[in-house]
Amino acid sequence: MSASDTREPDSLLLHLEGFEGPLDLLLDLARAQKVDLAKISILSLVDQYLAVIEGARRIRLELAADWLVMAAWLTWLKSRLLLPDGGEAAEEAEVAADILAARLRDLQAIRAGAVWLGTRPQLGQDVFARGAPEDHTEIDRSRLVLDLASLVRAYLLAVRRGAGTRRYQPRQLSLWSVKDALQRLASLLGSVPDWTSLDHFLPDTLGGPLERRAALASTLLAGLELARSGEVRLRQERDFGPILVRRAADGVEEGA
Amino acid sequence: MTDEPSAAEPSAAPIAPDEAALRLAEALVFASAGPVGARALSQLLPENVDADAVIAALRERYAGRGVELVEVGGGVQFRTAPDLSPRLRKVIEIPRRLPRVAMETLAIIAYHQPVTRPEIEEIRGTSLSQQTLDALLEANLIAPKGRKESPGRPTLWGTAPQFLAQFGLKDLRELPRREDLLLEPPQPAVQPQASEETASESSSPSSLVTDH
Amino acid sequence: MTDEPSAAEPSAAPIAPDEAALRLAEALVFASAGPVGARALSQLLPENVDADAVIAALRERYAGRGVELVEVGGGVQFRTAPDLSPRLRKVIEIPRRLPRVAMETLAIIAYHQPVTRPEIEEIRGTSLSQQTLDALLEANLIAPKGRKESPGRPTLWGTAPQFLAQFGLKDLRELPRREDLLLEPPQPAVQPQASEETASESSSPSSLVTDH
């Protein structure tokens, strides 16, 4: 900041790596030249820049390409700026010089903007918000979203899938097994005094006629089984008539 | 409590904490993520200032305000006054959707009511969990409609008034007719991938439904 | 409005909001993690209470205290007083300050938004490292703002809401005008709150360029 206009290019050389590219150096040189960037001399700025680059070459300092590209462009600019006024090339140079000056002003403005931002008390750096904020929000998921379209879609899906399942898996019939019948017959016989139709020993909860016939068959088999072991006696009075069953009282009397 | 007006005593009686100490304590407690203990505070305060006295003064300053200094594990912390929390509470409503199973069950009940649970299972081709039925009951979408006069006298289910309200229907007749949904003749030409299976699937349900 | 003891005055002079409203506002702003807008506050207050008046009264109550009510982008927030920062920093862990490159990039984005990365590089006259972009993104200070309709459709960058909050700005118009920035020298520490430390720290970046 306190740098004077008479700064030696060599002193800058030592700090070249401190600059962020050619534009940064140009801005620094310009600011050293004039505080008001609108009044700087582009020509002398070019000379200063080229002197720095020349110095770097002299001490074989390796420079990145963009430094040399800028140097080449500035050399071109200088040659045009030195032409007498009025020519097309001279005008071109003036435009180019204005663009360079504008870019330097832009960069300067941004620098100042960054500095201004830096002076602001920053949240989390200089000023602090509440360290332990409280959360008073509560989530209510009680409301349902329903629409007719999804109801209908669900219905079609369920019915179609249901039909599909049925096709492949015929409904399992819960048939009254012989084992079930044996158990039921044996437990009920005690409460039956006289000849009783086998129908009475069927379970109470039977679905359709198919289940009923199956249960009757199982119960008959159970009766035959018990008759064979001599626990019951069976009797059928006519063909296709009801089959009667009774507890065997004493010994075996008649056959079936 | 003990702030004697006698100025003669040197440092035995605790002096009232000055504004600077209060400000610092206030800022520290405010900015800290956790409770601030007297020891942590005293590290920031000038040596002759009693941290406990600062905390006490701070608590008094905030007493009755919207924010209070409360003692929690290991120190003090600012908290909003408990009486205000009902007013600060912000309820965010996130409506939920019915799970697929519940939606299907609801649709079957709507179209086949009154219907028993075994009948629903028959139509869906799979068993129905009590949980699903409970969810629909809880949402007030279905209601029991007596019992079926058949073995076991199973409960009959139908839609509840809330069902109409939820779907914006005036009455049940506003539901799309089942015939319109199911009895479309299958179009094998349009759906080349749809096999016989699909065709028979979609035609069978109506007959199955009427059987029961 | 109506509980004015002196019947002479009509309603021209704004009356001080009552303690209940102040407590509620205090608690709401205190509890929130971010700035609270006047709208959110007025939803909480009784209808006839002016939220702005409550905020003004609350700001006055906290003026000069260790915690202050400040207006930032999106509403008001309680923050510790800036002059306490040197002492608070001793006990509160703070993230690293943004390096100069990041601050300059941020300034470019703030002033030229929406702006592409090549445009940023053009202004700075040097390439922008991924690291710098990442740091700004991570600090939540910038956000992508769509893409530019130009070859390659590069991403456009702008400042995020956190930018205003972090730098204590009400909105982007609070940034100094570019013309004013070019007036040399930049006004050193206009804010009375900014401590010496902050001021010297923040002026250093520019001197870095020439002194080193």
Task: Briefly characterize the structure.
With 256 residues, chain A is mainly α. Chain A is built from 8 helices and 5 strands. Chain A is rod-shaped and about 145 Å long.
Mean pLDDT of chain A: 80
Largest sheet of chain A: 3 strands, antiparallel
The helix content of chain B is 40-55%
Instruction: Count up the helices of chain A.
Output: 8
Element string of chain A (H = helix, E = strand): HHHHHEEHHEHEE
Low-confidence stretches of chain B: 1-13, 183-212
CA-CA gap between termini of chain B: 86 Å
Summarize the structure in words.
The complex is a heterotrimer, with one copy of chain A (256 residues) and two copies of chain B (212 residues). Chain A is mainly alpha-helical and 256 residues long. In chain A, 53% of the residues lie in helices and 7% in strands. Chain A is rod-shaped and about 145 Å long. With 212 residues, chain B is an alpha+beta fold. Chain B has ten helices and seven strands. Chain B has helices at residues 19-31, 38-44, 51-62, 85-88, 100-112, 117-124, 130-138, 161-167, 178-182, 196-211; strands at residues 67-72, 75-80, 90-93, 96-97, 115-116, 142-147, 155-159.
